[in-house]
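Extended Data, record SAF domain-containing protein
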Amino acid sequence: MRKFIVAGILIVLGLLLTAAEVSWVKESQTSSKVRVVAIAKAITAGDKIRPSDLKYVELDEALYYNGYIDDQEIAIGQTVRFNMQEKTLVTRQHLEEQAFNKPGEGNSMTALKLEPELALCWAFEIGESVCVTFTDVGGSYTDLGQVKIKAVYDSYMEAGGMSEYVLLEGDSFVISNIVKHRKLGRLELVKQDVSASIK
């Protein structure tokens, strides 16, 4: 009799475990996906990425982190720092940071040094559009316009530290305003949802 009871318990436990596994599989199959950029065929360090070198793949949202590139346009034309095999997910660390020192038509460029307390707050990314704001000694606030980050110099990069200098490109009037206000108060770069773009 005991054998039948034990067998019955084992059968019930087996059914419960099977149901739990089926539920887990279904959940994993319906989990949210994100689209990221991957290498379509192996490329060598120093090569410039062409459109044919890339493809989109789907990744579980739980495995996604901010370093992955989700737009092929960001990677196309960039130089890779390492040999990359097929199916490798592309991150910004795979790409050489390039300081583009030739402004676009009608634009100008300047460099801006950040105070440590500002640089610690967040990291900049090359190609990102930000707004430059000015605050004078009396506390008056002025929006000087939108610029694009063209290069970042971080003297503490190896320690995962802070950005200190940024190279900015923008409309010549905006850049001249930044230069004029440089010694008159506090300049800050502000991240916000911007729709305009710098050429």
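Summary. Helices lie at 2-29, 72-75, 116-119, 172-181.
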